[in-house]
Design brief:
This protein is an alpha+beta fold. It contains 3 helices and 8 strands, in the order H-E-E-E-E-E-E-H-E-E-H.
Length: 274
């Protein structure tokens, strides 16, 4: 007599495998969560017992050759014992803006001056191209594009002054000037919760000749900076705008008086005779 062996239903094996996977996933998640909590706990203990210092770090990994921008940086607190005196700090990070990175830099790692093309703690003059000059121009909140102006931007300059014949006029004087820095003043509101950035000056890169022109223009009238798109290479208009143009009034025609012609003495010729 043959004895037939009963087969185990395949569904039961699949269920056991699925349960094993779920249990394993839960265990991995629980252990990872536990480790993260332990790390956070020890970090909080370190912050309580050790003195901290603020440094500037990249928000994401930056490759060699990248240009440093304010959008790519963040502030991080680290224990003083791990602080490098060559670190870029919030107080002077604007000098690093626009410089090239000479090394790959991981996310969250303190940015050092040695990482930059300028070398150790570069001076501001190292950002100026050969043959050019850095000139600081007085502006107010409105003239600095309401606080949105940043280093690496390009601006056009307009001069508003009082003309003897036309009255108050606005004249374009410079175009596509490279902004090196902005003078920032932080103003806290009455609640003390928020701050508003207002620029008192902007520093632009110009030729020595244009530096003299802008210096004279500051004494003549008021300078306004207009923000230009980085890829916009179109020339500025050379037209002068007057109050009459704003009000669509016809400009006064200059009537030139005709010069009175001098009459020369006439000579009479007598032809023939008696």
């Amino acid at each position: 007599m043959e004895i037939t062996q009963r087969k185990r239903p395949p569904l039961k094996g699949f269920i056991m495998l699925l349960v094993s996977l779920i249990v394993g996933a839960v265990a991995v998640f629980a252990s990872k969560n536990y480790i993260q909590k332990q790390i956070q706990f020890y970090q909080s203990q370190i912050e309580k017992t050790e003195e901290m210092v603020n440094v500037v770090v990249p928000k994401k990994k930056l490759a060699r050759g990248s240009i440093i921008t304010s959008q790519s940086l963040a502030v991080r607190s680290i224990p003083t014992q791990y602080f490098d005196s060559n670190s870029v700090q919030p107080e002077n990070y604007t000098v690093a803006i626009g410089q090239k990175l000479n090394f790959d830099l991981d996310e969250g790692r303190p940015l050092l001056w040695a990482h930059l093309d300028g070398g150790l703690a570069p001076t501001f003059s190292g950002k100026i191209e050969d043959g050019l000059r850095a000139l600081t121009i007085r502006v107010d909140e409105i003239n600095s594009i309401s606080g949105f102006l940043q280093p690496m931007d390009n601006v056009d300059l307009l001069l508003t002054y009082q003309d003897e014949k036309e009255g108050k006029v606005t004249y374009p004087i410079m175009q596509s000037l490279h902004v090196l820095a902005t003078g920032v003043k932080t103003v806290v509101d009455k609640t003390g919760r928020s701050a508003v950035n207002r620029y008192s000056t902007i520093t632009v890169q110009v030729t020595p000749e244009n530096a003299m022109k802008i210096t004279l223009a500051q004494d003549v009238g008021k300078i306004t900076a207009t923000l230009r798109h980085p890829e916009d290479l179109s020339p500025m208009t050379k037209d002068v705008l007057t109050v009459a143009d704003i009000l669509n009034k016809p400009k006064k025609k200059i009537v030139r008086k005709k010069r009175a012609q001098k009459t020369r003495p006439r000579i009479d010729f007598i032809i023939g005779g008696v």
